Please model this.
Amino acid sequence: MKRRKLSRRDILQGSIALAAGTVFASPARAQAPEPVAVTPALVEAAKKEGKLIFYSSIDLPVGEKLGKAFEAAFPGITIQIERSGSERLFQRIDQEFASNIRAADIINSSDASHFISWKKNGWLMPFVPEDVAKHFPENYRDPDGLFATSRVWLSSIAYNTNLVKPEDAPKSFADLLDPRWAGKMVKGHPAYSGTIMTATFQMVRELGWEYMEKLAKQRVMQVQSSTDPPKKLSLGERAVMADGNEYGIVLLKEAGQPVEPVYPTEGTPTISGPTGIFKTAPHPNAAKLFQAWLHTRETQQFFVDFTAQYSIHAQVQSKPGRRKISDIKLMKEDAEGVEKMTEEIKTRYARLFRV
Amino acid sequence: MTTVTTADTPKRRLDLTRPVLWLFAAFMIVLIVLPLSWLVVFAFTDKARRPTLQNFVTLFTDPAFLDPLMTTAIIATTSATICCLVAAPIGWLVSRTDMPGRQIIRALVTASFVTPPFLGAVAWELLAAPNSGMLNQLYRYLTGAEDPLFDIYSLTGLIFVISCYTFPFVFVLVANALDNMPGELEDASAILGGKAWTTARRVTIPLALPALVAGALIAFLQAMTLFGSPAILALPAGFHTMTTKIWSLFQYPPKLELAAAAAVPLLLLTILLLQGQKFLLGRRGFSVVGGKYGAPRPIEMGGWRWAALAFCLLVLLNPVFLPYFALLNAAFSPNATTLVTPSTATLHNVVFVFTELSSTQLALKNTVILGASTATVGTILALVVAYVTTRRVIASHRLLGFLATAPVAVPGIVLGVGLFLSYTRPPFVLYGTLWILLLAFLTINLPSAYQQLQAAFATIHPELEDASRILGATRLQALRQITAPLLRTGVIATWCFIFIGVMRELSAAIVLFTSQTKVLSVLIYDLNESGDLAAIAVLGIAMLVITFTVVLAVNRIPMFGGGAGARLRNS
Model:
């Protein structure tokens, strides 16, 4: 079979399209600035600044690897990655801006709805990398050129193969409510992690709050980051992951750890992580360079290969041997829906899970 | 003529003492009163700063707030009890018996004091997480059992871990009191026919009781106000304590009014307890110090000596040996809870932390800068206040002493909230700089530093200073030339003590840090949230190495029982 690249059509087939025309497509699309490539002038200006502060929720080891790749590509610029959960970063950005602290240059959030707020606040700087203009579908970039989706990934179920036989493994979210999984599951927290926030929104939309109510009675081990459940699973601390980064599971599995992803029959929650530059960035040129570099075909390919996430870039191919996103039944994204429901999710979740 | 000139000379010289001292007093007032005032203002007002009691009504009608309050009370009470039950016998064995290895035991208790509680909590995750924990793995392997021996993610687990890193506070007070206890009193009892047990019951225990009560109180306060251990162990188990609850109110959108209001009960309870202790003990705590008594004779334990040592080592297995072993193992193992063997040992984690993790350098730098500057400024401040209060230099010396002790009643996270409210608005916009952390660490460590140095000052008779002043020195000169050299040991011990305090501190830092002002404790906490246990192990070990190196470099470790360095968060 001919290897298919992840194209726009795949993504639409996968029905992960962000509700088109509602979030990223607004009438004022003429305002987007001219696309910019990685030019020697930009590199020079960035090197003068010498530093870049990148707020991100990407799993630490792979995030730092991305940072090192940037440093290697442009010697003389050091990158400081401020990793935390996206909801936590959102709160900190808010707190810092309220106190007039402008430390962040550029941010990648795992909760796309954050960009709606930041755009409303007028905090983002318009900047369109050439590759984004040429190779990114419109649904995955802001019409005003304020941000673009740098990565797409999933929040799946998974199990530890030493503790669970494949035939006994849960196949669906509904299976997780079986009493035999009580006390054996681990999950992330939507008030910390943007991935879990987005996933919780989609699960509640598809399965209702009743599902969460029942899940809360299963004595689930509650960790914070969506990067943590895969790690707890591979340690054997819990047998089943109720939500968390699918890419973490894939990477651990490839490294020989006893973990196996499960793509639930109801559909797998899908998360896209946009990146945008802050208007007040202390290192604006380094931020532009990073944004341009991050969305090139080479970087996106490299990113997809070593992080097991998915790219929107039309020319990026999925790594041989990995499952293609088009083969997975996905839940639909809706950043605007998340934005409206964030507070409700946090409050109801805290009441159900008691933390 | 000549006589007059000589007598006049000191007067003509400008004596800066008073202005300097008033400046210190003003600084202290700003340092402590400002954050607490903002805290009270926020607790009793709404978003528009209109007075209201609604915040308290909201909190006290919400089970999501009352449950943590109850949980915290249980944790604090049980931890304090356990600490006393463990620390008192060890303190007695180390101080009053001929048990072998007494100095080693003291050093090991020091080691558990130097270990930050949040690091201990992570280490215990590695050891006793119900399924992956190494002790549980071993237990299953040996017995073939299904269920874990010990679940660290539980109320019991949390109480256990908190006790592990709180008992040194009780130990120090008890051991100190016993060290200073006049041996003659026990001898008198023995001469009058009292058997060993009678002597213990009628003489030793009553004399040591005030120290034990003080220790219990401090243990209670510590357990109540800890943030790191509950955040690491209680949240996965699905329950909150007061500190984690207050912190969760900072989530977006931040409910600062509620956070301030939630801090008020902690504050009131602390003040109440400190008052209660005063009422209970009066001045009895000091009665054993005075005059020249002979050193107490160690009690001969005969064959029990080794059993006693075994008991001490068994207890110290929990805060020191096992956790350090778990951290070392995780640092060099490819899989945090798998026993490392020579063939699987890897430097990957070390390489990752020191070459790839981009926050490491900044956090290390910030921590060392803050540790050293807080220790220096704090020691100077405590020195001045202690001098003023013991020598009664200015009229309001009592107030100054009270101000220096007051922060003991302010839990770290409460102080963090107060400082955040104070220094994110004019006239002092310090949030986002290291200054706000310096202020926080300074305030938190001031009471114990002040207590230590006050004790040190009390041992130096003022006539030495007076002699210097009669010979024409100003007060500041007298201090520099006469008193300072005499205080050297005490000052160095206090410096080290504050430095360790900064390394241990998480609860205020977690509220006050920004990306550019991250400290090691916050970085370790961040890594725990994302589940990067191996990186924590490496950073934690690095942190301990730094602490020990700095403390050793400044001087020897302030051995417990070694004079002024012995008093911890005394009150």
